[in-house]
Amino acid sequence: MRRAPAEYYGIRRLNPYQGVIQVIDLGGVRIYSSDGRRWQVRRVEVPAGVRAAGEIPAAEARAALEGRPPVPWPLADRHELWLLDRRDGRPLALLASCRWRWEAAMPEDPTWRPFAAGAARFRSAAYERATGLRQGHAERLARLVEHAARPHPRAQWFERRPDGSGLGLHGLRVGPELAGRVLARTAFPELLVREDWEDPAERALVADYHAWHAPALLAHWDLRPATRARLERAAAARPVALLEAWPAIPEVLDAARVRVALVQGRLMRAAR
After folding, report:
1. CA–CA distance, 46 with 23 (Å, rounded to integer)
2. Other CB atoms closer than 10 Å to residue 21's CB: what's the count?
3. In terms of DSSP bridges, do strands 20-25 and 7-12 run parallel, antiparallel, or are they unpaired?
4. Which of 37, 32, 28 is nearest to 11 (CA)?
5. Which of 92, 94, 205, 271 has its Cα between 20 and 30 A from that of 172?
6. Model confidence over 159-211: pLDDT tens digits?
7. Do residues 178 and 86 make contact, with C-beta atoms less than 8 angstroms apart?
8. What span, in angstroms and rounded, lies between the C-alpha atoms of 240 and 245?
9. For residue 272, what pLDDT band results from cuts at 50, 70 and 90?
10. Which helix (H) or strand (E) holds 239?
């Protein structure tokens, strides 16, 4: 099989969410970077007949890396695995994503994880004001999503189309009534988890979770202007995280706000 030319794209790191990475895809070899400067090479198992695999000459990989276009590159992980709401089967929280359909493995563990174990310092000021609870906000968020999917959680892969709609594929506890369905773009949460909860405190908790991840979420493409503006305001409050995510951000609405936050981030990082 003739080897296809190198592809350049971005993918999201999910469950727990860790932002966007850039990928140079050569078929049997992929080269990854989280900042567009440092790159790691990994071999990939490719099914026979899908893409040419085999040995990738070092010179070919080096040429693909040296000839790369400027980052960031558009997200290409259009296959998405969603935890489903038990009430109506709509997408609830994003569990995984991938570029190729053959990578969309049958899900085994439908648990949504907002943060890596032991890594969260997350606190929601709005949730604290509404409930009086000062700790355990990350755990409360995880339980909120878990309860919305229980007692028998379902997870389904969707192939997202250019207009944002999604074709339902296989999944965990997905029957024939769900496989093959087409959901409009509005049926999918725009970010990582559904925000339209009945309890105002729960809505605030999810909104603050997205605000916490705002620097990395700004690397997502095709955000609504109102969403990008909201994330930019939240990201400005976390200058160092914004500085780290900056190479992957494709668009800025309030350039002055972001520029000030980036300067603050450089000063804060230098003072460490």
Report:
1. 16
2. 18
3. antiparallel
4. 32
5. 205
6. 999 999 999 999 999 999 999 999 999 999 999 999 999 999 999 999 999 99
7. no
8. 9
9. confident
10. helix 239-245
CA dihedral 40, 43, 49, 54 (to 10 degrees): 110
5's CB contacts (< 8 A; 6+ apart) are none
Residue 151: is the preceding peptide bond cis (ω within 30°)?
Answer: yes
Distance CA 252, CA 250 (A): 7
| Encoded amino acid at 37, one letter | R
Q: Where residue 1 falls among pLDDT bands split at 50, 70, 90?
A: very low
Q: Residue 145, exposed/middle/buried by CB under 10 A (0-12, 13-18, 19+)?
A: buried
The DSSP secondary-structure symbol of 68 reads: P
Tokens of 106: 């049958």
Number of residues that this document lists for the chain? 272
Nearest-angstrom CA–CA distance, 66 and 61: 9
Question: Which strands, in side-by-side order, build the sheet including 29-33?
Answer: 7-12, 20-25, 29-33, 40-43
Residues contacting residue 92 through CB under 8 Å, at least 6 positions apart:
82, 83, 84, 85, 112, 145, 148, 149, 189, 193, 194
* Residues paired with residue 7 on neighbouring β-strands, in sequence order: 25
How confident is the model over 135-158, as a mean pLDDT?
95
Nearest Cα neighbor of 230 from 216, 218, 245 is 218
- Whether residue 118 is predicted with pLDDT greater than 80 in this model: the reply is no
Q: Where are the domains of the chain?
A: 7-66, 79-212, 220-272
Residue 118 corresponds to which tokens in the numbers above?
Answer: 């032991």
Predicted TM-score (pTM) of this structure: 0.93
| H or E stretch covering 265 | helix 255-270
